[in-house]
Amino acid sequence: MKIALAQRNYHIGNFESNTNKIIQTIKEAQSHGADLVVFAELCVCGYPARDFFEFKEFIDLCAQSAQKIAAVCTDIACIIGLPTYNLKDEGKDLFNSAYFIEGGKVKAIVNKALLPNYDVFDEYRYFEPETEFNCIDFKGYRIALTICEDLWNTIENPLYITRPMDKLITQQPDVMINIAASPFAYNHDEERIDILGNNAKQYQLPLFYVNQVGAQTELIFDGGSLVFDAEGKLIDELPYFKEHVAYYEFEKQAGVPKVSFKHQHTIKSEYTSNIEQIHQGLLLGIRDYFYKSGFSKAILGLSGGIDSAVVCALAAEALGPQNVMAVLLPSRFSSDHSITDAEDLVKNLGCLSETIYIKDITEAFEGALHPQFDNLPFNIAEENIQSRSRAVLLMAMCNKFGYILLNTSNKSEAAVGYGTLYGDMCGGISVLGDVYKTQVYELANYINREQEIIPQNSIVKPPSAELRPGQKDSDSLPEYDILDTILMEYIENRKSSSEIIALGYDEQVVRRVIKLVNGAEHKRYQTPPILRVSPKAFGMGRRMPIVGKYLS
User: Among residues 43, 45, 62, 112, which one is catalytic?
Assistant: First the structure.
């Protein structure tokens, strides 16, 4: 039996595009002599479709697409993922299902049993868990087909009582196939390989695992589909962040299932650090956000600092420099080197640029507020007028020329509220909102790995918002190497203030940082979607009350 793994990029709700892509891949696999081609979880509609699942027409369109796909599967079989109606008298209306299609018909339907309801996942909101499990017979082989979380378990982490494979293994399958939609995080590839390899070893069966690739708003899917032998050894790994189809010969030799393949990938050697993966993930996130939204041109405010420089460089690489407008918006407090650093970056990238001075604009605002602000000292109110003036100008250019504004705030700033609502926190998508400041420096150096693209001065100079004379970030915040480690313990590792203090951090600093994080929750509720690259990003994967007092 020749199996094709189809690692494809889908578009939520774009049934025509998804269906055509699946059909084209089926025909391609058939031309390569494949007997079975396997697609990802919910590939027909795209993942995660969220409350689209509440529309009957949406589910019906999934079924219609499946019939179109089945019609081309006369001499080849395929596995596709889609939502289906729950015809039982109880439970939720839908199942998260996989169709096994053969001979132009749906031969078997497998429903997902283990519905994740943590971090970015909310599947139990829509789907009913399955409790009955059966293998699929095809060409003399017995297939144990499962969906994503159904294999996301280990002996050390018995999260679920009912594991589909515990029941399927009693039916003596020859091979496991798992279709998935597993989002990217910079540490997720190693965890995924470990867990799935343990499953192959535990059940002593070869495992074919197909993941989707592509970005859906803030979620990035990295692909990295996998094949394991019956001992749990990883024998193939598909490319990360790219579409790909790979072919494998599966057979029994002396009654023992064996897997061979035409070509082997050595993808792991391409990524030697988390920063390399984050870089590729952000490029894919930017590119798909624009393409799937129907836009092509990005705009951002370019300050000469490291954050906007990294965002500009990423956007130019993802979209092409001709589609990136960098706007310099110097104020009366902007340093000469900030302007020249920004200009040097524009030259290095070859992107478009404009310069708009905001001194007169901010002074006009201050003049209009003079009766109210008279005799009051300059403070954060006047500082934020500068940031909001920039946002007004950038959004005006968006409206006039069809740009999408890129937000340039990093995760450290977003965490502690070091940003201006309706000012520098504006944007259609936040590129660095899940990247700590210390990681931004690593990204800048990685972007400069072959030649200087981001001016060295933008990297080495003390970070500053330049909203008042001589301002530095360290005037208001701990040094970023200290701040980021505390933030990671609190946000990613979910440690309390007392636990973090016990690690050796200064008590006063820890309590101040956590108070800042909790106090900025209202700001984060009003930020653009953040491209997720870490195990715990702000947004739908971290849901905190705005008015909560715990750990403050």
Answer: 112
